[in-house]
Design goal:
With about 280 residues, the chain is α/β, with parallel strands linked by helices. Helices cover about 30% and strands about 25% of the residues. It has a six-stranded mixed sheet. A four-stranded antiparallel sheet has the order 2-5-4-3, with no helix packed on it. Helix 2 (about 90-100) packs antiparallel against helix 3.
Length: about 280
């Protein structure tokens, strides 16, 4: 089975790998206990990403994710650490010169084009950048050495909607290459819905689920009715919302009787209702 090329994590803490700078990230061999409904494996020339059925989830199937790299793979890994990792005294052109000495595949023309596209000033130091500008520069650095694996921690945080849309388009273009992979953590669920094939959800240190995005939409739905009907509902409710105008509940489609009033659930609604369901248990 061919693995999906996009894995996303909605994390309450930064990724373990995001603690490392690009120069050190590939020197680690890291096991990340996460989740997936099916056993999958993905490899490219630089990085191996394997998902195996070994852990236990609150919802969904057991799973484990391992990311295996070698020291030589540093050239092929791009990292965005939530705006961190760039020396604060450098300007964008100076950052490019430093990175050219680190990455053998550094593309100065691509970097200059990205800086221009993002509207980054040539003479302003990194410490004087806004949060959004810092993120743009980090993304430019991550993409300018033609990586095969991107590790992104809140990469679209602080960007205005127009720029965020441009960045997600860049990432989608990147992911279309069969030899490219992206591992992203984000609290902006709309970006995950645009970018990702597989989504994992972590709440208060507990992994609630990890499944393919389309499978989640097919498996879960919103039930609508009155508060009294909700109380009498004889199926597992994963989360609910009751108002003076009625009630809705997150349920599995296959558990509901024929004729039940169900509507599709967005990934954000699914996460919110699951959290509410966890908090009342």
């Amino acid at each position: 089975m061919k693995a999906k090329r996009m894995l996303s994590l909605l994390l309450t803490a930064a990724l373990m790998l995001s603690m490392m700078t690009p120069a050190f990230a590939a020197a680690a061999q890291t096991e990340l206990p996460l989740a997936s409904q099916t056993q999958m494996e993905e490899t490219n020339e630089a990085v191996s990403i394997r998902l195996q059925a070994t852990g236990k989830l609150v919802y969904g199937s057991p799973f484990e994710l391992s990311v295996v790299t070698r020291p030589a793979d540093a050239q092929y890994i791009g990292v965005v650490l939530g705006g961190e990792g760039i020396p604060t005294c450098l300007t964008a052109p100076q950052v490019g010169k430093v990175m050219a000495g680190i990455y053998q595949n550094w593309d100065a023309a691509a970097y200059a084009e990205l800086c221009q596209k993002f509207g980054l000033p040539d003479k302003k130091q990194y410490k004087d950048y806004s949060t959004g500008m810092k993120m743009k520069l980090c993304i430019a650095v991550a993409l300018a050495h033609h990586p095969k694996l991107l590790l992104l921690d809140e990469a679209t945080n602080g960007l205005d909607p127009v720029v965020r849309d441009e960045v997600t388009d860049l990432l989608l273009d990147f992911a279309r290459d069969e030899n490219h992979s992206i591992l992203i953590s984000s609290h902006i669920v709309s970006d995950l819905e645009k970018l990702c094939d597989t989504i994992a959800f972590l709440h208060k240190g507990r992994l609630l689920l990890c499944e393919e995005k389309d499978a989640l939409r097919e498996e879960y739905a919103l039930w609508h009715g009155t508060a009294a009907q909700l109380a009498a509902l004889d199926v597992r409710v994963y989360g609910k919302r009751v108002t003076p105008y009625g009630a809705e509940a997150l349920v599995r489609r296959d558990a509901m009787p024929a004729g039940a009033e169900l509507t599709p659930v967005s990934i954000e609604e699914l996460f919110v209702l699951m959290v509410k369901g966890e908090d009342v248990q």
